[in-house]
Amino acid sequence: MLYFKNIGFALAILCLASCSQLTDKNPDAALAAAQEAPLQFKTQSIMRSSPGCATDSSTCAKVSINYPEAVDGETALRDSVNLFVQEKLRNLALDFNPDAALSGGTNAAEFLASFFLSQHEQLTDDFADSAQMPASVARWELEVKGEPLLNSGKATSLQLQVYYYTGGAHPNHYRVLQSFGPNGAKLAVSDMVTDTLALMQLAEQEFRKVKEVVGDKPLADAGLFIEGDLLPLPQNVALTPDGLMLYYNPYEIGPWAFGDTEVLLRYEQLASLLHPKYKP
Predict the structure, then answer these.
(1) What are the boundaries of the signal sequence (predicted)?
(2) N or C: less crowded end of the chain, CB within 10 Å?
(3) Domain total for the chain?
(4) Pair (194, 129) in one structural domain
(5) Position 26 in a domain
């Protein structure tokens, strides 16, 4: 998977740095502010399609983007959450052209929709002199669904689900998860738990239950892209109302046929592993 950047990168870094420095000096004040005035979310939606959809739906491109926008609430947290979403949406353009220029427009969803359609238009232009555009590349589709998973004051978690088809043997899909502290700081796994090695061991136990095809076999023998026999933690981990969600995207630890894997470690399972300030 490709990673994401953001418009106004320098400004974004300065904003997050200043917000973090302000609230890190008094984390209790940030927590109190987040609990006293919790974030509210509203869903923003964009739907676009290429001109060809009006006459021939088999050779057109369609875009549907629904994403959460944080409103009200504590300023540093709200700004950090919204910046993260805009950053991820804008950088999705890199999935369709790794050389994409990520500037232009103020709204990342509008930018992404326009860019996706323009890439499809360029493709159709390339086939303009051909007798027929190959069916495998004629129809494109992009769908993004974003939502808050947790908004407790102690932590805020977001999920973005991405699906797209731009030709080929199969569509692509993946999720992006991120948790934030009450001061707006993005939380890493080590921020949420006290022992990452113990978490890995617990995650592997649950992973084997979810993926019955793995069973008791050594992970490498199960066809996973893993050296040794210790399951790594996924790139996407977030707190939810029920526990800690670990999500392995397709290709992250195995071939496409292995699929994606969601592992939920419930709060009662985590016990002392979870940092006390994030316990429900």
Answers:
(1) 1-20
(2) C
(3) 2
(4) no
(5) yes
In a domain, 179, yes or no: no
**131-181 confidence digits (pLDDT tens):** 666 666 678 999 999 999 999 999 999 999 999 999 888 899 999 999 999
Question: Following DSSP, what letter does each residue of the chain receive, concatenated?
Answer: ------TTHHHHHHHHHHHHHHHHT-HHHHHHHHHHS--EEEEEEEEEE-GGGGT-GGG-EEEEEEEEEEESS-HHHHHHHHHHHHHHHHHGGGGT-TT----S-S-HHHHHHHHHHHHHHHHHHHTTTSSS--HHHH-EEEEEEEEEEEE-SS-EEEEEEEEEE-SSSS-EEEEEEEEE-TTSPEEPHHHHBS-HHHHHHHHHHHHHHH-TTTTTS-GGGGT-S-STT-PPPPSEEEE-SSEEEEEE-TTTSS-GGG--EEEEEEHHHHGGGB-GGG--
- Residues 150, 38: one domain? yes
Tell me, yes or no, whether 207 and 150 share the same domain: no
For 63-111, the pLDDT digits (tens) are 999 999 999 899 999 999 999 999 999 999 999 999 999 887 779 999 9
Q: Do residues 149 and 194 both lie within one domain?
A: no
